[in-house]
Amino acid sequence: MSKDLQQPEPEEVDLGQLFKMIGNMFDRLFNLIGNVLNKIFLAFVWTVFFVKRHVIKIVIAGVIGFGYGFFKQKKGEPIYKSTTVIKQNYETGENLYRSIEYYNELIKDQDTVTLGNLLGIEPNTAGSIINLEIESVVTDNDKLKAFDLYIKSIDSTLASTITLSEYISNSKEYDHPVQRLIIRAKERGAFGPMISKTIDNINNTEYFITQQKRDLDQLTLLENSIKESLEASNELKEIYKKVLVEASNEERAGSQTSIRIDNTEDKSITKEYELFTNDVELRRELVEIQRQKEDKDKIIEVVSSQQNQGTLDNTKQFLGRTIDSKIYYTINLMLLASVLLLTLHFIKFLEKYKGQI
């Protein structure tokens, strides 16, 4: 009986094992974190000593890169850049982006004849083009406004499930109305024709021409309808004025006639005021329609452009940012020197184990 009382309960044994397992798990976790931090620290220390050991070589490589960039700016073939900001009044973005991609493919293939025909320039001038770029001109505030308009345009139940980050991730760069077109070339005098022809190629697309005609016809019909309403309103105002004059004459004559319009008491003045406010709204709509017609008059319009002038371009793209070419070559040569030195260190490290293989 006493032996049975001294034996631990199964639940107590399982609980002890559970605590032991949890303790072991935390020990392994802390050991893993410690090993990772230790490796990071050792890598940092090794990097510091590596840079200290080869700092002179890396600096020399940077100086050479800076000197090469300076020499290329002064003595190398100049590159010119022209920037044009355009506004899309129709959904031409995808078509425009595909056209720029096609032009760049022709540049890559050195098909100057086809490129010259598309851009309305001579083949030798087309051969001077380095590349074309296009990017959206949009701020965070513009994205918020576009998101707000989109939310208001859809069902409220669906709108509650869409976040700003989801909307931005699903939107395309070419969807934004304002775009920046950048052309780089070795010659300075052909930017104007290239920009004009690029825009004309989109403006002359049959689909957009048809869509533009439909929109303008619809706006014209709406404009004519509002003008007819204004004419009818003017006729009604003349009638009310005539009624007021007759009523005033009868009052002077001592008449007790009660004037009624639309089976109501005399409300001529009120009716005239309502017609006046209605005319104001209609005229405001006419102004808005005229503005819409002006916007729709061009499929793509130029907001600002350097045209033929262009500017000397001494910049390069590095990790998505535009930097001066001297800095670009400095960084690249320093990185190249660092990679070569690391490769030599790695080869020496492998040679230590060469005899053991």
What is the topological layout?
Layout: H1 2-6, H2 10-75, E1 80-88, H3 93-108, H4 112-119, H5 123-126, E2 129-136, H6 140-153, H7 156-159, H8 164-170, E3 178-185, H9 191-203, H10 206-252, H11 268-296, E4 300-305, E5 311-312, E6 315-318, E7 321-324, H12 325-351
Antiparallel strand pairs: 1-3, 1-4, 1-5, 2-3, 6-7
Helix pairs in contact: 2-12, 10-11
Fold and architecture overview:
With 357 residues, the chain is α+β, with helices and mostly antiparallel strands. The chain has 12 helices and 7 strands. The protein has helices at residues 2-6, 10-75, 93-108, 112-119, 123-126, 140-153, 156-159, 164-170, 191-203, 206-252, 268-296, 325-351, and strands at residues 80-88, 129-136, 178-185, 300-305, 311-312, 315-318, 321-324. The strands form 2 sheets. Strands 1, 2, 3, 4 and 5 form a 5-stranded antiparallel sheet that branches. Strand 6 and strand 7 form a beta hairpin. Helix 2 packs across helix 12 (325-351) and helix 10 (206-252) packs antiparallel against helix 11 (268-296). The two termini are 67 Å apart. Mean pLDDT is 80; it is low at 255-265.
